[in-house]
Request: fold
Amino acid sequence: MSLIHEVFAKAKNENRAALIGYLPAGFPTAAGAVECITAMVEGGVDIVEIGLPYTDPVMDGPTIQAAVDIALAGGTKISTVLDTVRQISALGVPTLVMSYWNPIERFGVEKFAADFKSVGGAGVIAADLTPEEAGPWIAATDSQDVDRVFLVALSSTDARIAKVADITSGFVYAGAVMGVTGARSSVSDQVRGLVDRTKAHTDLPVAVGLGVSTPEQAHEIAQYADGVIVGSAFVNAINAGGADAARELAKSLASGLARV
Amino acid sequence: MTALNDANLADLLFPDASGHFGQFGGRFVPEALMAALDELDAAFRASKTDPVFIAELADLQKNYTGRPSPITVATRFSQHAGGATILLKREDLNHTGSHKINNVLGQALLTQRMGKKRVIAETGAGQHGVATATAAALLGLECVVYMGEEDTKRQALNVARMRLLGAEVVPVTIGSRTLKDAINEAMRDWVANVDTTHYLLGTVAGPAPFPEMVRDFHRIIGDESRIEMLERFGQLPDAVVACVGGGSNAIGIFTAFLGDENVRLFGFEAGGDGVETGRHAATISGGAVGVLHGTRSFVLQDEDGQTVESHSISAGLDYPGVGPEHAFLSEIGRAEYRPVTDTEAMNALKLLCETEGIIPAIETAHALHGAIQVGRELGEGALILVNCSGRGDKDVETAARWFAMNGEKA
Reply:
């Protein structure tokens, strides 16, 4: 069983959803990101997603764009990202990288999978890699035993969900909104339908992200999904109050994950 | 030149079923957009054999755009081209002043067919934005155009035109504030509003089916040219020349000639201050294979795959990517791509003004410099067809500033 699956299984035993927290490497600085993510884990984050900063993040809203700009301006490289993965994995928490595809392709698909594995990474989410283009990536992640997470969207047909689920490992990432990352005031009713439709095609855990920022939303999603993914809200918290604010947000989100 | 047999000619004309031109093209997008791309693909394929669609588009091309566009023999300009004769395919005479209207009318009609009421577009020089705003006004569609803040300044006339046509122009204030960032913002809008909105992409880049679809709406440029060459000049040109940013005007004029082995194809990219300086937008000449904005092609990027900002005096060519079919045509050697510096382009612009009484767009001026260069290489008697892709009204201020700075009278 992969580390990711162990964490989902443990959460299930505790009758709750897992909390997945995102932060870009290099934000606010390379060391600051490690400090903030460590605080998030202390606060109750079960699985960490480390963003690989990219110049053209078309899936990200203003909050994460601004964080990524700071990371890039601060000189964040792929090597920085891998070093961050090494430090966070050492905490014993499953650590994923969320990236756009071009940096991975440019780095070298096989080399990225191997280097990522060597620093203790658990899985990779490539936000704009479609199953149709994923052949070399599937081979590389299989050979390194790295989980590869793909996304399903509210607009995905059942046929596409099946196709995505078929090549996904670790967990399936269900996008809660049609749109970019960023805090939203409510979670669409359609999300539960998407999770149910996905579960009809796979035994993998299904985690819900995009637009999730409050304990109330986390609580609502925890009733039907295996994981709750929060990103922009952590960036906002860190902008306002640094690592301590990130820890507090993680605590408050974690308090809402129980199934009732 | 690569010899073409039937099999690889078919490859040239059609991407494969998943939108690939060799190793280039494809779809690299968030899953949320896949359904919309499939819907667009279906509408596009249905339109190709739909007599009503074909008739509607043909009527607009003739009676709204003013097609066919003429071919002008540039006699005095040719005197600088080593004995070659330069012919101008006058896309600058189209309604709205460039080739961009060809694609826009096709996609606007598809938007109606898909039952969508809103179009969004990116624009660099503003020509595609103006064309989109025009088609939206004509067909009663809501229109939002994303334009880098930097470009709204250097192309202020086109911003005014778009607003006059009823479009909302959104200045993009992130990243390099140019075309690349305008595309990012348009994609973000699209993913959030995909049920009601069509992204009317203005070049032969982006995820499939855009490169194929935009090419097909522009291939009328080459189709008309090929017929006129044979009827009026009794031969095909020795070379076809166009400027390449994303590459829509170039692919539009190239496509009809791809199977004509003896017609050489040349694309001229924006060399900015010179490829060797790093300040340029010559993606094929100075980039590497990568993925940007949904497609695999050549990309200006660093060793970490981060996009490098492009530089060109021409807003319309100031883009760090290029259409995947151009990458493919370059790789197989069917078309040749070369850089043209800002200075070379501006000198060609001035030369065309003074010898032919035609003020071309700065984008087009890159092709005009290229035509002189190719003319001098091919020499006496060569016939060179240039896509005169746009008119230069929008660039008059930039040109005046440029020539004043360089101590010349504009």
Summary: Residues 107 and 308 of chain B are 30 Å apart (CA to CA). The longest strand of chain B covers residues 264-274. DSSP finds 17 helices and 15 strands in chain B.
